[in-house]
Amino acid sequence: MDDSERGFTLHAEAVVESLFSDEQGIPAMGCQYFDPCDHGADTFTIAIPKVTFGRGCLHEAGARANGLGMTRVAVFTDPFLRDSAYVATVLDSLKQAGLDAAVFDEITIEADDASVARGADFIATGDFDGVVSVGGGSVIDTAKAAMVYGLYPTGDFLDYFAPPLGAGKTIPGRLLTHLACPTTSGTGSECTSLSVLRINNLSTKFVLGNPLLLPQEALIDPICCATLPAMVVASTGFDLLCHALECYTARAYTRWDKVDDPRKRPLIQGANPWSDLAARKALEIVGEYMDRGVNNADDHQARDQLMWGASLAGMAFGNTGTHLGHALSYGVTHLMHDVTTEGYTVKSPFVPHGISVVVSAPAIFRYTAEAAPERHFEAAGYLQADLQGAGSADSGEALAKRIIELMQKTGVPNGLNGVGFGPTDVPALAASTARQVRAIANSPRKTNLVDIENIYASAMSY
Fold first, then answer.
1. Would you call the peptide bond into 423 cis, given omega within 30 degrees of 0 as the criterion?
2. Extents of the domains making up the chain
3. From CA 88, how far away is CA 69, in angstroms rounded?
4. Which residue, 234, 264, 253, 457, is CA-closest to 363?
5. pTM (whole model) above 0.85
6. Widest CA span of the chain, in angstroms?
7. Coil, helix or strand for 109?
8. What CATH number was assigned to the domain covering residues 56-220?
9. Residue 40 contacts residue 258 (beta carbons within 8 Å)
10. DSSP assignment of 181-199, as one string?
11. What CATH number was assigned to the domain covering residues 230-458?
12. pLDDT, tens digit, for every residue of 383-406?
């Protein structure tokens, strides 16, 4: 019986200690990629929740919430899951633990500011002392942000977002204790201090990031993935893939300016030795199990592994940040029109997040490989690319070819053409993406508007 079958619980300190040391117990942190540079950061921070993983662990929700000191619980979910066995399991477990619970389910798939506003009202009037979220990234991200705006209302929704989009206002105090229970194998939101939200009047997504958003605990039950449609597994799986790839190839933390005040250091800090460890394992999982997990719902090993890989990738990018893959995806979801996706009962226009990310990914990694060829070559190897006769100079093409192969095997749309875009859309897509300042800056290769246009043009089809 392996860990995915019997379940296990991780504490941040134990994970860091076990993964950061070699056989002699010496911290294995030396890496040329992280060599110091003038005025660059010389410190990185790791923040992850207490994680419990294993089939059936949703039954622990009551005991976990009780242990966190909750007495009256706000349960966040979405309308599609409200009557599911998973929500029923959590509610029954909370009841058995003697906890009072109320359910909020007015959440849009691909979370937006309107969902957060409704959730904030629910938090503000409910006299809650804890939150349990049961759902995909949209649910978990809405729960995080709803606590911010429900507890600390502000005149402008963008006040808590970082400049240049928002005012960079400080969240005045702590949030409610949060137990996150993901039901998809992609976003990793249960392990991050981020909430990715569509701002409706701007028609695109932006990231609300703050260490206070990090859940205290996560229950990751892979049974939740057993009945997911193939395209949902594919979409979330490609989100996992791109999280891990973008973390592993991101600008090194030592290349970001040093911040002396530890309270002001962002967790979106660039690639670091911790993120490397989690991202590498996540890539290996995708390379071995992606095709199997998408195309065979009865392959429980594959789907369980993808669930674990998603959380590992969340642990990685929650302490690293993403870069061009996610930056360009927001241009896609901003300007999408007359498109739907198999496996999702959402009206047009709708492109699920993982698909919006992967359609440009091969072109992106062909572009970024020039700045970090060894990293891209290693990443291709972790994904089980055919590297026979290849070297680091071939890394971008090798990595792109492997991503395209996985796209073909899982039946996702073939590039931007597959989600309704053509060459005439390139300038508008690039202009939209240019607003994603932090993600673009996290790329290993300096990138301007013309570069972004060229990437989009190369991503039309493969």
1. no
2. 56-220, 230-458
3. 21
4. 457
5. yes
6. 64
7. coil
8. 3.40.50.1970
9. yes
10. EE-SSS--GGG-SEEEEEE
11. 1.20.1090.10
12. 999 999 999 999 999 999 999 999
